[in-house]
């Protein structure tokens, strides 16, 4: 999948984890905010009722016959009892002296900035309480009288309410986290989708398609697309130059060698001394070897180049073989050899006609060289299962059994070919072309007669 890419983490995974982390923090903040607000509202509600109860008791305080009397209104305590099942405590103090109520109930002391109603949270008789203390001044003949009322209520109901709110807030926070997590995953996938779209757009192209990428991408990916397009433009220019160089090199190497061989043959006809004729024959052989090696090296370079950039189309192997044989028939006839083609109409294959023809030409050239004079080189096209098979049969010395597995390696020549001009690239070219088309090459010796067989196996379209 990565094709050797240096992978360092995953943008999708990193973005997803970051969004999940943010969602978790927001869910926790939501829970804290809800609980803080709920506690504040619960305390304010209880404080308002406590304050109203204390005020009601203070309003009932009066001086009769010089004595302070407090008639506790029923409503003052019933308003607390009706709200919940919490216990209610009260205490009335006149000028610091206990008058009525729970004598041990503390009085909330006023702190700086507090008004006449002082609220505290404390413990009384083993329970947590919320308490308010309020003071009122009355006028008496003997002087002012200060009446202080403390009213307290346990926090059981408030605690139960906060627990219910806490559970609901937890469900809300968890639901928020799940929703945010799903949105985070979708967002991460959406964020990396343009990268996948771009990758698919490039990977679906054919080997020859080096056009600039036109797929719509976000602005953040524009530098990547620009760099990719520039690279493809440079690659296209480089490939064009390489193809032109191979063609030019083939022309410039083969032409002088052909001229040199012609001149050597002319000189051979004019020379009479045996030692000079032997030298010229050796020169002609060396020229043939150089020409053959140069030609096959250039063919191999062209094959190596085109196998990565196949120009694929439907090919009829029978027609292609006929065309190739027509081109090589004059060469065979000059050596008193014949070329024949056999086979029924095969299914088409998908491939690069130039490469397949080049590979077949190299194998036929070898067969013509190794076949004895007057013999026939046969090309047979058959159909085996899902394969279209193109086989070349000669009547030469065949392959040495110990050499067959190594003959497709570059510059490898068998023992039976040591006295024949060659470079050891013909079978290499044939195998590389066959493999580039998803097929394979098979080398064997003929069973009933002398000679070798080279078979190209191509998958049918």
From TrEMBL:
The lineage of its organism: Bacteria, Pseudomonadati, Pseudomonadota, Alphaproteobacteria, Hyphomicrobiales. Keywords: Kinase, Membrane, Phosphoprotein, Transferase, Transmembrane, Transmembrane helix, Two-component regulatory system. The keyword Protein biosynthesis does not apply. Its main location: membrane. It catalyses: ATP + protein L-histidine = ADP + protein N-phospho-L-histidine. InterPro entries: 2CSK_N (IPR013727), HAMP_dom (IPR003660), HATPase_C_sf (IPR036890), HATPase_dom (IPR003594), His_kinase_dom (IPR005467), HisK_dim/P_dom (IPR003661), HisK_dim/P_sf (IPR036097), Sig_transdc_His_kin-like_C (IPR004358). Its EC number is 2.7.13.3. It is an enzyme of class 2 (transferase). Residues 248-461 form the Histidine kinase domain. Pfam families: 2CSK_N, HATPase_c, HisKA. It comes from the Bacteria. SUPFAM superfamilies: ATPase domain of HSP90 chaperone/DNA topoisomerase II/histidine kinase, Homodimeric domain of signal transducing histidine kinase. One of its GO terms (molecular function) is kinase activity. The chain crosses the membrane at residues 15-38, 165-186. It is found in: Membrane. It comes from Pseudovibrio ascidiaceicola. SMART domains: HATPase_c (SM00387), HisKA (SM00388). This is histidine kinase. PANTHER family: SENSOR HISTIDINE KINASE YKOH, SENSOR PROTEIN QSEC. Residues 189-240 form the HAMP domain.
